[in-house]
Amino acid sequence: MHVIIEQQTNGIELIKISTKQGKIVFTNYAASIISWQVDDNNIVLGNAVEADEFYPTHPFFFGAAIGRYAGRIADGQFTINGRAYQVEQNDTPHHLHGGCNGMWQRLFDYEVVEGDDQVQVVFTTQMCSAEDDFPGNMDVKVVYTYDVTNTWTIEYFAEATADTLFNPTNHVYFNLNRDNKVVDNHQIMSDKLQMFPLDESGMPELETIDLVEMFGTKAVTLDTLFTSTEPDIAQQIAKVGGLDHPFEVAEGKLIVSNRDYELHVTTDMPQMVLYTFNTPGDWEHQMNIYKPHSGITIETQSLPNDINIFGDKAASILRANTPFYSKTTYQLKVK
Ligand code: G6D
């Protein structure tokens, strides 16, 4: 294992880790993953060359740690212990991904811990109620481990001073294709593929669509979804131009694959949002080289807006002075 730190401007540092087969690059900006090359194929979207210009500017959450809350909260409003809170409506009229003072917009402190078969990067930051209007201040630690089995592990640790919400994720976009063509050829596979439809306001509804039953297979190609004439699916795909939907999979395990690779995702979070980068045109910038479906995110998290759906039973509630822990792994296997 080999680690190099590269300093760019704006306080941005790149942490470049390499093994015989793989190279992964993280940055202290939003504790982001910037690139992940296995056999010289980069499987994540990002920009290592101009990271210092790119990351503080783009609006797509590339590879960023997201928090306090991944996904939308309807109208930015929620109630905990009978008290109503209003957080930033940065995705009018909703709250999205922790708002403009969220984890995706800050420089983290970090420490590198080198072992024989793995390297860990321990990122830390503090979230303050005065900055983002969520209740309580919170210490957050995000630990990335990269090892010789081509596995990237994310562990989240947090503790808050008041009852609050915490629903972290990572917004990495994958594209397993060597030629970087769109991800429509990627397959999603699990014993259970339950898709949560979105209502008119973009919030998940609880009557899930069972894709395994609908398509009679545990491995569904994205193109099959995008061109499906099943009314329930066609309507959902048309609504957002692809996938931007929560899924529940069997035992938190999902495999995303193309002809050459299998990405094995394992999580202890209850759901995951699959987003196929449907509207990259929203950013007019010379560094925007993306087209719709250039990548797919697998955002392991609890259901967006869960606090307004399940109330006191929402998985995203974190009680005061109670440690939070969650783990997600992405392992790349060459076929
Ligand atoms: C997210 O779910 C959201 C999308 O709707 C948004 O457009 C994207 O981040 C940038 O995953």
Give the number of domains: 1
Which stretches are poorly predicted, pLDDT < 50 over at least 5 residues? Answer: none
Number of E strands: 28
**What is the CA-atom radius of gyration, in angstroms?**
19 Å
- Major beta sheet, specifics? 9 strands, antiparallel
How large is the count of helical segments? 6
Helix vs. strand class: mainly beta
Helical amount: under 10%
* Mean pLDDT, all residues: 97
Provide the CATH top-level class.
Mainly Beta
Pfam family, one: Aldose_epim
Protein name: Aldose 1-epimerase
Family: Belongs to the aldose epimerase family.
Keywords: Carbohydrate metabolism, Isomerase
Blueprint of the fold:
Layout: E1 2-7, E2 13-18, E3 22-27, E4 32-38, E5 41-42, H1 51-54, E6 65-66, E7 72-73, E8 77-80, E9 83-86, E10 95-96, E11 109-114, E12 118-127, H2 129-132, E13 138-147, E14 151-160, E15 164-165, E16 169-170, E17 173-174, E18 187-189, E19 193-195, E20 209-210, H3 211-215, E21 219-221, H4 222-226, H5 231-240, E22 244-249, E23 253-257, E24 261-267, E25 271-275, E26 296-301, H6 306-310, E27 317-318, E28 324-334
Antiparallel strand pairs: 1-2, 2-3, 3-4, 4-5, 6-16, 7-10, 8-9, 11-12, 12-13, 13-14, 14-28, 15-27, 17-26, 18-21, 18-23, 19-20, 19-22, 22-25, 23-24, 24-28, 25-26
Bound molecules: alpha-D-quinovopyranose (G6D).
Residues 60-61, 71, 244, 273, 275, 297, 299 line the site of alpha-D-quinovopyranose (G6D).
